[in-house]
Task: inverse folding
């Protein structure tokens, strides 16, 4: 059973439908014990950085989520804002603490491009990556902020929009995607299936 963390700020219907399509049962939860013990957990994200971080703290889930993300044997998927929350902070919400899993600030795209980035773009795993999670492909993005530099100890993929940025990172059984695999057609469906198996 895939446990989807219910922060109350994410539109997760498309994610639920994607898991239904691949025959993976899911549950929407705010229960710390379920999040701690589940084989597979999703931290989704659509919306504002501060609202999501505040919701995690209101539900007293910060320590549980951090412990899980620091365990390489726990299968955890972080999507869009969920990936950004792994950082220490974001330019979107000055003074708001992220989960601090990676020592990086999330920064805004420049005024030289359309913000947010909406639509399809290429995702290319870096050749230096030691663990292959998925092949290169096209994914759907909806983001105004991004991770510029890959954190140490993580494999990563990049995308070109306002220059290269990190569009996915993975370590052990943790996978974080700036793009939306649930909206990324057959390629995204295969990624979800591989993660959930």
Result:
């Amino acid at each position: 059973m895939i446990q989807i963390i219910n922060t109350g700020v994410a539109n997760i219907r498309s994610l639920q439908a994607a898991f239904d399509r691949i025959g993976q049962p899911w549950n929407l939860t705010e229960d710390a014990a379920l999040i701690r013990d589940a084989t597979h957990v999703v931290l989704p994200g659509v919306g504002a950085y501060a609202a999501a971080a505040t919701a995690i703290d209101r539900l007293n889930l910060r320590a549980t989520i951090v412990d899980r993300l620091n365990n390489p044997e726990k299968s955890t998927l972080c999507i869009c804002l969920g990936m950004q929350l792994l950082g220490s902070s974001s330019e979107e919400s000055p003074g708001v603490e992220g989960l601090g899993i990676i020592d990086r600030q999330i920064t805004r795209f420049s005024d030289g491009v359309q913000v947010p980035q909406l639509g399809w773009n290429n995702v290319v795993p870096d050749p230096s990556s030691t663990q292959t999670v998925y092949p290169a492909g096209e994914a759907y993005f909806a983001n105004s902020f991004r991770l510029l530099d890959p954190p140490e100890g993580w494999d990563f993929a990049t995308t070109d929009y306002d220059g290269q940025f990190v569009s996915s990172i993975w370590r052990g059984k943790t996978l974080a995607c700036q793009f939306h695999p649930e909206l990324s057609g057959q390629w995204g469906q295969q990624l979800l299936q591989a993660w959930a198996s």
